[in-house]
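Anyone opening a protein record will find just a pair of labelled lines. With that in mind, the following record should read easily:
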Amino acid sequence: MNEQQNTKGKVVIISGPSGVGKSTICRDAVKELDNAYLSVSVTTRQKSESEVDGRDYRFISKEQFQDKIDKGLLLEHAEVFGNLYGTPRDEVEKALAEGKTIILEIDVQGARQAKIIYPDAKMIFIFPPTQKDLAARMNRRGREDSERAEERLELADDEMAAAWQYYNNMVINDKLDQAVREVVQIIQEDTGDKEKND
């Protein structure tokens, strides 16, 4: 049952450590591409003041999340620092059936699960210029206390080490415009997508 082989769309998985700028890169890349769609993950974590429900994430309860797992409604899911994150399966399948390029902004755990289901998925990992830059970006966000920020930096080390094993496309987010351009070029390589601004 290789349904993904019969679809016209493409799956692009974009990962990177917390604070590296993945969300901004993903949103900007979608604007540059024709027929691309950014999947919105569900999560059980609390919404920050700057986030918009339905744009950044869909914020749901642990009970609602577990119900989605039980009903097989998630393509992948993972627990990070006590919070659950997952990708709605129906959104991905609908976008693929419509021939769209679907971008999944997910962590390394989720990416490994999604790659099993969509072996042809294009894998892109976003790196910070340096660890120091990443720590500064996380600090500016002000979402975590110092202990949680330290945990996130440790996880970032693990994710960046794993990236070399699972991802075949690496982009360093030093200058945002350049990083977006690189991501768009990688996505276009074999998807046939054209930039809207061409």
